[in-house]
């Protein structure tokens, strides 16, 4: 495993969200960290000069590629996988804001077990990985670094997930080599491709886990909303045609809620840190 994964940011418009995402990468990653901005033929003419300018100014080893035609999210990601050599990758949506130490926590998780294929951190808006309220779109916190600090102070358990959540998804290169990349032919412009990848990985003995010591803010919908693409629909039908028990797997996970002790531990750790410092509203 490459100890330093390449952070891949798929882009399609969403200028303001992208600007915040890139600023957070500059703030949280060490100089020289590899970053690839993969622009899927954005129609906003401001995207390319902004992204190229950021790459030139940033202390990170950042580069920008623009697709000649819109490929759709899965095919854009697949092209980025091919453009990042043999490194592990972190797919990071442009509507995220990363926090202090986030990448190191994901790398630490990956190093704990060579059979981990995908890793997802906690987030305010991450379905089964949402915190503090499970399976809800929680508001973005005012002090996300405080939550990240609390998470980083926990003893990790890296619990199993039925699927990763694609807003921030670490992918091990060895898993990509063995099972292939996203199924762009089936999932077209996007939604469902990461679930299919995780199910294929699990079927071949790989693990999909939560990094319970990392936290990343996710605003949600910045790139797909203008395209009238929404979760479910035809792509969910395609996913279920291939994996008929997918809904049952996720439903059983939600009913059992094995992450509840970890959510409670994070909340208790956060409140302990808050009590030791200045009183403030950590949730915005």
TrEMBL record:
One of its GO terms (molecular function) is glycosyltransferase activity. Keywords: Glycosyltransferase, Transferase. Residues 7-179 form the Glycosyltransferase 2-like domain. SUPFAM superfamilies: Nucleotide-diphospho-sugar transferases. Pfam families: Glycos_transf_2. The keyword Glycosyltransferase applies. Gene3D superfamilies: Spore Coat Polysaccharide Biosynthesis Protein SpsA, Chain A (3.90.550.10). Belongs to the glycosyltransferase 2 family. This is Glycosyltransferase 2-like domain-containing protein. The lineage of its organism: Bacteria, Pseudomonadati, Pseudomonadota, Gammaproteobacteria, Lysobacterales.
């Amino acid at each position: 495993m490459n100890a330093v994964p390449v952070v891949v940011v798929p882009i399609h418009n969403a200028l303001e969200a992208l600007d915040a995402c890139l600023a957070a990468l500059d703030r949280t990653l060490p100089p020289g960290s590899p970053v690839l901005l993969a622009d899927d033929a954005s129609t906003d003419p401001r995207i390319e000069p902004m992204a190229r300018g950021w790459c030139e100014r940033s202390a990170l080893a950042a580069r920008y590629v623009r697709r000649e035609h819109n490929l759709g999210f899965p095919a854009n990601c697949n092209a980025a996988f091919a453009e990042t050599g043999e490194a592990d990758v972190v797919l990071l949506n442009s509507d995220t804001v990363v926090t202090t130490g986030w990448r190191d926590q994901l790398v630490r998780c990956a190093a704990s077990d060579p059979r981990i294929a995908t890793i997802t951190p906690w987030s305010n808006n991450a379905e089964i990985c949402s915190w503090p309220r499970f399976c809800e779109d929680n508001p973005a916190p005012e002090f996300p670094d405080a939550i990240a600090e609390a998470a980083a102070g926990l003893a990790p358990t890296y619990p199993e997930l039925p699927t990763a959540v694609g807003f921030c998804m670490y992918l091990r290169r060895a898993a990509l080599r063995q099972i292939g990349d996203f199924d762009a032919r089936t999932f077209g412009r996007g939604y469902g491709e990461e679930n299919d990848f995780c199910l294929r990985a699990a079927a071949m003995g790989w693990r999909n886990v939560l990094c319970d010591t990392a936290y990343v803010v996710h605003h949600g919908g910045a790139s797909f909303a203008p395209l009238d693409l929404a979760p479910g629909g035809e792509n969910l039908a395609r996913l279920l045609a291939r994996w008929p028990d997918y809904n049952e797997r996720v439903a059983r996970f939600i009913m059992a809620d094995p992450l509840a002790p970890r959510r409670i531990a994070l909340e208790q750790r956060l409140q302990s840190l808050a009590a030791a410092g200045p009183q403030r509203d950590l949730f915005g």
